[in-house]
Amino acid sequence: METNSERVRDDDAAMIAFGRIAERWRARQERDSRARNSGTLETMTAPAFRAIVAERLRRLEGEMMDVRSRVNGLLFVVAGAVITQVVLRLVG
Fold first, then answer.
1. Residue 13: what pLDDT?
2. Per-residue pLDDT tens over the stretch 31-88
3. Distance, first Cα to last Cα, the chain
4. CA 20/CA 28 separation, integer angstroms
5. Which is it for the CA torsion 50, 51, 52, 57, positive or negative?
């Protein structure tokens, strides 16, 4: 049976651990906040922004085409395996 003093010690240990976690979280938040606020605000013209967005979009489209071709390849492999199994069961 757990005594009252053992329960208090367990609660104290949990509070200490929680305090350490909260302290690390606060330190990380402060560090991130300082990093965000220390940089200067970057400004650019509308045509430059459009060019950057267009380039990112082209890159994303290329990556999506790559993913699509890989998925299509996997589908053909699965379809081929299913057809092979059906033929083997019909013949065998």
1. 81
2. 888 777 666 566 889 999 999 999 999 999 999 999 999 999 999 999 999 999 999 9
3. 68
4. 12
5. positive
Residue 38: the pLDDT is: 64
Q: Which two tokens stand for residue 33?
A: 């906040």
Angle (CA) 36 58 67, round 5°: 100
User: DSSP per residue over the chain, as a string?
Assistant: ---HHHHHHHHHHHHHHHHHHHHHHHHHHHHHHHHHHHSPPP---HHHHHHHHHHHHHHHHHHHHHHHHHHHHHHHHHHHHHHHHHHHHHH-
Amino acid at 5: S
